[in-house]
Design a protein that fits this description.
Layout: H1 37-43, H2 46-61, E1 67-70, H3 75-89, H4 92-95, E2 112-116, H5 118-127, E3 133-135, E4 143-146
Antiparallel strand pairs: 1-2, 2-4, 3-4
Length: 163
């Protein structure tokens, strides 16, 4: 997709961009980078993939260039991200505010996307409900899930992944 450059940072990788007080400045949790857009969409659950394609096409018409920075993750990959978060934040409880273990992660089921750049996430937060896509967590501007029927009203944000 247009707009993706080598200097653009994946929100999953650049924790310092999303954490308070400069936390998360030790580097990426998962060491990954954005993969090809087609590969990310193909790995999503079909209803989310359809919603993403419709929403991203509308965003492009509005001059916004959305990217999936992280979509479906394997259980092993999600576990590595979670384990690194536990080390980084010092406890399972604090880590769960930012990353869920595989058994609780919508990413493992292909039912969540992390979106960038921030302008695209803002567009999706404003217009995503038309496609059923809603931002889920108040502390994660990049995380969206298919939470309502297209045209429905998104539920209120929960503070973080702990609920």
């Amino acid at each position: 997709m247009p707009g993706l450059t080598g200097s653009w940072l994946n929100p999953v990788d650049d924790l310092s961009a999303r954490l308070p007080n400069g936390a998360g400045t030790q580097g990426p949790l998962d060491g990954s980078s954005a993969s090809s857009p087609d590969a990310e969409v193909a790995r999503l659950a079909a209803p989310l993939a359809r919603a993403w394609l419709a929403a991203s096409a509308a965003a492009l018409r509005d001059g916004v260039h959305p990217h999936i920075t992280s979509g479906r993750r394997s259980r092993a990959h999600q576990q590595r991200i979670f384990d690194r978060a536990v080390v980084r934040y010092g406890s399972v409880r604090e880590a769960r505010r930012w990353v869920l273990p595989p058994e609780n992660s919508a990413h493992v089921k292909g039912r969540a996307v992390d979106v960038g750049p921030r302008e695209s996430a803002s567009w999706l937060e404003e217009h995503g409900a038309r496609y059923g896509l809603c931002r889920r967590y108040a502390n994660e501007w990049w995380h969206f899930e298919l939470l309502v029927r297209p045209g429905g009203a998104c539920p209120a944000l929960v503070p973080d992944a702990t609920g």
